[in-house]
Specification:
single chain; alpha/beta; 3 domains; five-stranded mixed sheet
C-alpha cells in the first residue's frame, strides 16, 4: 500500500499515525502532541479525529476536490461546446462568442473532454485519422519534392538579419549571374530535394537537384530502388502526389520497367502522403534550418551525414523509438 503524501504536507503518513496514536491511544493532550510534532492544535486534532474514526487508513491524503460543484458547466452546454469543437473545429474564443460564455470556461470544458487538441482529427472531414502501416519494407514507398530557397554566400536572413541577408543574396546573384524577379529582386534559385520514404521502416533516401522535371524524378526513382535493393528491400509500390512529373508517361513507363505499381494521392489531400510530409518537417528542422550555413554548398555538404544520422541513429517515435534502419530485412547490412 502506498503511503505517499502531497508535496507540501507537514507530516508524513508515519508521523501522522504516531501523532494520532499519542492522542487517542496514549491519552496525550492535543497541545502537547502538537508541540511534539511542531504542528498547530487544529492539525493535531484533525489527525486524531480521523484516526479515531477510520484507523490508520484515515492518515492518507484526501482529494481537495469539492463534493459538490454548483457552478460546473451544465451538461446541455457541454454538449453544445463539444459539438462546435468536433464538427466545426472551432477554438475556445469562437465557441465562447457563439454561446455567450467565457473563453476560459470553454477551454476548461475542452480539456476535461480531452478535445482541446485535434491532432487526431482529419481537418477536412472531422473524422478520426486512420493511420496505417504496410507490413514489410518495400511494400510501399512515398515520394515527393521539398523546395528550399538556396542559402546565399555569407548566410541567409534567418541568421544574419534581413538587411545583411538581402545584401548577401544580391552579391550571390551578381556572382552567379542569377535572374531577377519581375520586381527587380535578385534570385539565387531553388533547391529541389527529391525525397523517398519507406512506409514500413521510415528509412529515407534524398537527392538534391536543380529542378523537378519528369526526367529528374524518374532518375531519382531508379536510384532509390537500387539503393533499397542493395539493402535487401524489393520495392513493390510507389505513392506520389499529382505533380506533373509523377503524372507523365515517362514516370509510368519507368515504374513498369522497374516492376512497381504507381499510385497517386487524392487531389488536395496531403494527409494521404502524411509520412513524407512529416519527414519534410523533420528535414527542415533537423538539417535545413538547424544551424547557420555560410553558403548553399556548405548546407548541401551536411545533407548526406544528416540523412545517415536520421536512418541509423535517430530514434523514431512512430516505430517504438527505434532507428528506421533497424526495421529493414537484411539486419547484417544495417551499416552499409
Amino acid at each position: 500500500m502506498s503511503h505517499a503524501t502531497h508535496a507540501n504536507a507537514a507530516l508524513t503518513f508515519r508521523a501522522r499515525l504516531r501523532l494520532a496514536r499519542l492522542i487517542v491511544d496514549h491519552d496525550w493532550s492535543i497541545p502537547r502532541a502538537a508541540e511534539r510534532y511542531d504542528v498547530s492544535w487544529k492539525t493535531a486534532r484533525k489527525w486524531a479525529d480521523r484516526y479515531a474514526a477510520e484507523g490508520p487508513a484515515g492518515m492518507l491524503d484526501r482529494s481537495s476536490r469539492p463534493h459538490h460543484q454548483p457552478n460546473r458547466t451544465p451538461q446541455p452546454m457541454v454538449r453544445k461546446i463539444v459539438h462546435l469543437r468536433w464538427k466545426q473545429r472551432l477554438g475556445p474564443v469562437e465557441i465562447g462568442d457563439r454561446l455567450g460564455m467565457a473563453t476560459s470556461t470553454v477551454h476548461a470544458v475542452l480539456v476535461r473532454c480531452r478535445i482541446n487538441r485535434l491532432t487526431h482529427i482529419d481537418r477536412a472531414t472531422g473524422e478520426p485519422i486512420r493511420r496505417y502501416e504496410h507490413e514489410r519494407p518495400g511494400d510501399l514507398i512515398h515520394v515527393d519534392v521539398k523546395k528550399l530557397g538556396r542559402v546565399p554566400d555569407g548566410g541567409g536572413w534567418r541568421y544574419v538579419g534581413r538587411q545583411e541577408g538581402e545584401k548577401n543574396r544580391s552579391a550571390t546573384a551578381t556572382r552567379t549571374g542569377g535572374p531577377r524577379s519581375k520586381h527587380g529582386n535578385p534570385l539565387i534559385g531553388t533547391c529541389y530535394l527529391h525525397t523517398v520514404v519507406d512506409d514500413h521502416s521510415r528509412v529515407a533516401y534524398v537527392e538534391a537537384h536543380d529542378d523537378e522535371t519528369k526526367e529528374t524524378a524518374t532518375e531519382v526513382l531508379r536510384n532509390a530502388v537500387a539503393w533499397f535493393a542493395a539493402r535487401g528491400v524489393n520495392v513493390q509500390r510507389v505513392l506520389s502526389d499529382n505533380g506533373s512529373c509523377y503524372r507523365s508517361n515517362l514516370w509510368r513507363e519507368t515504374c513498369t520497367d522497374l516492376g512497381i505499381t504507381s499510385k497517386h494521392t487524392r487531389p488536395y489531400r496531403p494527409q494521404t502522403n502524411g509520412k513524407i510530409e512529416r519527414f519534410h518537417r523533420t528535414l527542415a528542422e533537423g538539417w535545413a534550418f538547424k544551424k547557420f550555413y555560410t553558403s548553399e554548398t556548405v548546407r548541401l555538404a551536411a545533407l548526406r551525414p544528416w540523412v545517415h544520422q536520421y536512418n541509423h541513429h535517430r530514434p523514431h517515435s512512430a516505430i517504438g523509438k527505434a532507428a528506421p534502419i533497424t526495421r529493414l530485412d537484411n539486419l547484417a547490412g544495417h551499416h552499409i
